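--- STAGE predict ---
source: upstream dedup step, 1 unique chain passed
mode: sequence only
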Amino acid sequence: MPAQTAAPPAGTHSAEEILLAFASAVRAAGVKVTADRARSFVEAAARLDVGRRQDVFWAGRATLCAAPEELAAYQRTFEAWFAPEHAAATARDTAATTVTEASLEDGAGSSDGTGEEARALASRRELLRHRDVATLDADGTALLRQLFAGLAVRLPTRPGRRRKLNPHGQVDRVRTLRDQLRRGGEPGPLRRARAPRRLRRVVWLVDVSGSMAPYADSLLRLAHRVVSAAPHEVEVFTLGTRLTRVTGALRLPDPDDALAVAGRTVPDWSGGTRLGEVLRAFNDRWGQRAVARGAVVVIASDGWERGDPALLGRQVERLHHVARRVIWSNPHRGKDGYRPVQQGIMAVLPHVDHFVDGHSLKSFEELLGVVSNA
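--- STAGE serialize ---
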């Protein structure tokens, strides 16, 4: 949890300081605000009336946001920062206002007795969505575990094999012809049918080796959330020095109990990793003729391979031939400066359909969206 900065004395904030602090708040809420955009925001607000709330709002909206999905976060941050009751405390009269760093505490904010203090830039839950789960303290981890229950899970579907009568379906020629034969060849109404949608199987392969230890707990909790949505259509395995099926453990309703049982089931937790050999075992026993055929396969791993990367690439290619989609979730992909230069990742990238982030609650939500549309 970042430490809060000390509040400066009252009356020391210029208009530019307040606007730049607001730009930092927007960045903390998830909007990709660069230094150039922040400077453009200050210049745009200076050309308008800084004392008018609407002018500041539209100046920031036009300069700080670059995509439609960023508008909601910007709106929430602006309403929290420039609340109507504090509108008079803008830089025009340089009223005393202290600004604190965004904290993970709900409604964070304190007063030093010398002036009003702005409320927290975003709630603890909103900030937590963007935090790397490996960097959370005990309180943040506890709250993260609660937030998993609110994740929306929608599994992919496939058309059923048997079509049922449906007035909005396609013309069923066989049923229509049979009806005409029963009537002695007399024409009659067309019979229509449609194949109902059924859930498609999802297979979750979670790397629990030493390099993935900071993320293994969260990834298994995410898998438990998916298993809870469809217990008989989801299979979960752990990857390490050996392959372990933990689906039965994750079918327990309580996530803490489920992970405790899974932890006792997995013999190589936080051990080494031989992804190529373990995936070969999965393909031989479960993949070619069993659960992976026609399924959406999610592999959550950093791709750190101690064995032969070429073997890993061949096994992912085998999996790609039988699965509906292969999705690789890497916890390091969402970090600044990441490049897929590991030999294991380079070997598998040609054979995966989606290469996504996997380090935060927000990236888990996006991963679930990719799975549901697969």
